[in-house]
Amino acid sequence: MRKLLIAALLMLVFLQLKAQTDTTYKGLVFRNLTYEEALKVAGKENKMVFLHGYAEWCHYCKDMMEKVYPDSEVGAFFNTNFINIHMDLEKEGAELNKRLLSHTFPTLVFFDSKGTVMHRAVGRHMKQILLQLGQEALDPRRRLYTWQQLFNEGNCTPDTAYIYLRKLEIANFNLQQDALKYLSKQKPEELKSAANWKIINDIYRDVSAPFMLTLIRLKPDLETLYTKPAVDRKFTDIYKQEFAIRTRMLDTAGYDNLKKQVKESGLDLADQIVDYADLQKAKMKSDYDLYFKLGEEFAKKHAANDGVLLNEIAQGFYEKTKDPVLLNKAEQWARKSVELNDCYTYNETLAGILILEEKKEDARIVTNHAIEVGIKTKANYKKAQLYLEKIEEMK
Fold first, then answer.
1. What is the pTM of this model?
2. How far, in Å, CA of 186 to CA of 196, rounded?
3. CA 128, CA 131: separation in Å to the nearest integer?
């Protein structure tokens, strides 16, 4: 870690010195300015400030310094249009980061000369994506600040809300508060619109808000409009994520409270969601005896005609046991999933189980079929090809 820090700092110094002493250097030039000084220069030159916010442990920050910023096209664009500075947002930039609230690095922020955030994003950006980000910052129609103003005007359309919330997501903001702010203002009939369903389905994830009960009451109408499988998937996915978070955080009380909330919500999927959460909790805690028990119960109770769930449980058994009785159960679930949907993934799962069961000829037939399906559907079938090698080695 110390070596990585030293290398990153040396690279920053190197780029600055090279830019000042080597006229052949055409990359992005970071000026030796504080944030406050950069704002003053930006005002004089009528430009925005571009901040590369980094942390000493950030590998992608160093990667951009070495591979992206030295590019001549990047340099020409950013040196012409911005006052470029860099700052460790956990050290000298910690005070600024109290306002930016960034925990993901690199953090790329564009300020006007008054310090207003006009646009931002997080994560490593390679050349073309970085240039696109800079172009968006310069364009009032595309920058985050413009959409934030439109969103806060009060007469925000669903399309405006969706674009703004997506831009918040790119910027790594917690967008749930703003999503809830928008959705809570909509009347029940308005929430059923295709544009609002898109926001609910793609973005909304806050199960703790009272608004969740509104969605549950609207569920039958949403199913009529957007199909029951699609609506069911939204509800199961949103709760799956929340239960997983509480399990990873060892938040037993929070986990139990969420179970109680789901059971009392009136949601038709409540039992399935809670049972699935307990199944995954057992797996995450490596309590495989409990996992196998709950998996068998879940398959019988909730997954009899659900290929996705049957394949998932079969795959879980395949990964965690060599017990012939349990593998035979997994084989039956895998065969049923293939019957429901003859796709590459389900055939691959079945083939793997048959190999563990040492059913050589069955495994060969299923594996060859998986490859055929993979070729037809342009799936990655390399694992099935490896299975054929294993099959040939079987007695």
1. 0.79
2. 9
3. 5
